[in-house]
Model the fold of this input.
Amino acid sequence: MQSVSKFLTSRWGPILTGIVIGILAPLLVKFGNPGNMGICVACFSRDIAGALGFHRAATVQYIRPEIIGFVFGSLAAALLFREFKPRGGSSPLIRFLLGMFAIIGALVFLGCPWRAYLRLSGGDWNAIPGILGLFAGIGLGILFLKRGFSLGRSRAASPAAGWVMPAFALLLLILLVTAPLLGRDAEGNPVGPIFFSEKGPGSQHASLLLALGVGLVVGFLAQRSRFCTVGALRDVVLLRDGHLFYGVLALVLTAFVTNLALGQFNPGFEAQPVAHTNALWNFGGMVLAGLAFTLAGGCPGRQVFLSGEGDADATLFVFGMIAGAGVAHTFSLAASPAGPGANSAAAVIAGLVILTILGLTMREKASA
Amino acid sequence: MTSAKILDVRGLSCPEPAMLTREALLSLGKGTLIVLSDSATSCHNIERTGKLAGWKAEVADEDDHSYRITLTK
Done:
């Protein structure tokens, strides 16, 4: 077992994780997920928010088992390798806000960094301005980090704090399976939540067991290998360390080959699944998301994996994403395949201003 | 023998532990740097950052789930 762990924490770990994601994500599309959305942590958080009734965009409501699997896979790996460690207290409120702004930006692009790379590997060239925006956002975050930005230190926390996310994931699984009608309309008739889309992306999904299984495998591997789609570029620039970058490269190349093999590679800009062609706001949305992820210390997948190993701060970031998805769809901040939403531009600009203020003002005193 | 510089990165999130380690190594040039970490992820990152910069890294796993990484050049 130790040799498996040693392999996964070596430079081969992120590469293996990237290869596994590159095979499994296009397969999830083959078996029912929306196009180029085998895995999208932002879209899936948005779907979960919709299923819980935090927004009423009827086409994007479903409790995605992949996210539940991510949490349990990470939890299992953390427990097995004695890395489950309840901790918290590193600017929790700011992390919640960063989660909100991260998903607001991602939903202007229509995808998190994971989906940006999966869209690219499926031939959706609208992902290119999105990925360039992601790079720009990470670059901005690096500038703030170099100027001394810090969310401060976390401390060991009581076990309860560490178990919040696994308990939440279990609750989601129960709600997914039972879909109870807990609400009442004006006439007293039972009504959601839980809401499940009857058409649109929310209605497209692989079977529960397959999606959960993929989530478990990816969660386990990614917890061990520390796979991170934002740390990938950040560490190359900041630390001259390509360790995580090769994992993302492996993901893109493997997903490209898998998409080709499955007949899912459709190159072009027009008529791409769950995507729009507005390059400016594909770019702008991902600048905001990339900056938020960098300031929070990792991509949305990484935040979910950290939440599974007891990190209460990462848990708050994930809750921020779910709340932010509710805000994005209620206030017309999210884009749709028709293009950016009525208030997408204003949201991205406001988000960038707020995160710049945070980036310039939050400091940890020198410790050495 | 000069006294080793100690860098405490306990509780800091990615990428700060590795970034601060790299900055400290570049500013030291050579000698010994001891980094205190409380996360396995950070510990691996610090070890790798040190090695990439040409330093030798030795990790001591303390009893309380913390790590003491000694970097020498």
Chain B touches chain A at residues 5-16, 18-20, 22, 24, 39-41, 44-45, 48-49, 52, 65 (CB under 8 Å). The mean pLDDT of chain B is 92.
